[in-house]
């Protein structure tokens, strides 16, 4: 494997316990600094692919290598999860604390930062995302778009080295989407981005691929 690949999937197969097969020999490599747009029809298996990369959906066949390390066991994936930021498609899967500040502090605390450091990081990320003053808001009372941004804040607060973003613009109005585009453009991390918003992807992505019939096709 080349040292310039952050994530490499080789002949990856994934089938749900129900028997629904969604990945049928996926080959895909994410390079340093690359921002790959992952296209595909509803139900093609895009979210499942991200879950496989995080080790949340165990693959039946193939190889996943992250930061040059072959990931097979839960233990392998646990060691890389802190370095890979996954924005779930559904914000409610990401947010589970009573207040916004607690949610955004959760990751840094988990990484070993002190409460003061975690608070400082969380307040900075919230401010960067235009969410200054949101710290004390009750998470479950946020609007869908606000939740989307707070969910992204929880990911960015962990300073991940690579970002897996599942529909980041869902529920965002035009102005907030513009701000998100500027933020993502300014971030140096490699990204794998799922979105049905082609305008958004055109402004972020350096490469486009499509998941079709369980395999990756270049577009
Ligand atoms: N836990 C599960 N058990 C069985 N099938 C599932 C499960 N979760 C998802 N699926 C099915 O697997 C297929 C792939 O789902 P996935 O969410 O990965 O697609 P997607 O490409 O991200 O779709 P979308 O663009 O609509 O978000 C779908 O047909 C979905 O219904």
TrEMBL record:
> GO molecular function terms here?
ATP binding; ATP hydrolysis activity; ATPase-coupled transmembrane transporter activity
Q: Which UniProt keywords apply?
A: ATP-binding, Nucleotide-binding, Transport
| One GO CC annotation | ATP-binding cassette (ABC) transporter complex
Instruction: Tell me where in this chain the ABC transporter domain is found.
Output: 7-219
> InterPro entries from the entry?
AAA+_ATPase, ABC_transporter-like_ATP-bd, ABC_transporter-like_CS, ABC_transpr_CbiO/EcfA_su, ECF_ABC_transporter_ATP-bd, P-loop_NTPase
According to its UniProt record, what is one Pfam family this protein matches? ABC_tran
Stored Gene3D superfamilies: P-loop containing nucleotide triphosphate hydrolases
PANTHER family for this protein: ENERGY-COUPLING FACTOR TRANSPORTER ATP-BINDING PROTEIN ECFA1, HEAVY METAL TRANSPORTER
Family that this chain belongs to: Belongs to the ABC transporter superfamily.
Please give the name of this protein.
Cobalt ABC transporter ATPase
The organism of origin for this protein: Thalassospira alkalitolerans
């Amino acid at each position: 494997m080349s040292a310039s690949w952050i994530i490499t999937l080789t002949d990856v197969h994934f089938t749900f316990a129900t028997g629904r097969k969604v990945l049928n020999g996926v080959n895909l490599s994410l390079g340093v600094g690359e921002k790959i747009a992952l296209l595909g029809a509803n139900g093609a298996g895009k979210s499942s692919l991200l879950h496989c990369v995080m080790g949340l959906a165990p693959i039946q066949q193939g190889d996943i290598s992250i930061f040059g390390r072959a990931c097979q066991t839960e233990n392998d994936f646990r060691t890389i999860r802190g370095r890979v930021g996954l924005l779930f498609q559904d914000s409610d899967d990401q947010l589970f604390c009573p207040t916004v500040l607690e949610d955004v502090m959760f990751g840094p605390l988990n990484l070993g930062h002190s409460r003061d450091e975690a608070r400082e990081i969380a307040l900075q990320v919230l401010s960067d995302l235009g969410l200054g003053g949101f710290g004390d808001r009750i998470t479950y009372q946020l609007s869908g778009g606000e939740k989307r941004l707070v969910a992204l804040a929880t990911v960015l607060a962990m300073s991940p080295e690579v970002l897996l973003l599942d529909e980041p613009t869902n529920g965002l109005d035009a102005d907030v989407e513009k701000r998100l585009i500027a933020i993502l453009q300014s971030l140096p991390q490699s990204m794998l981005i799922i979105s049905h918003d082609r305008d958004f992807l055109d402004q972020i992505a350096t490469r486009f691929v499509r998941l079709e019939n369980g395999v990756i096709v270049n577009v």
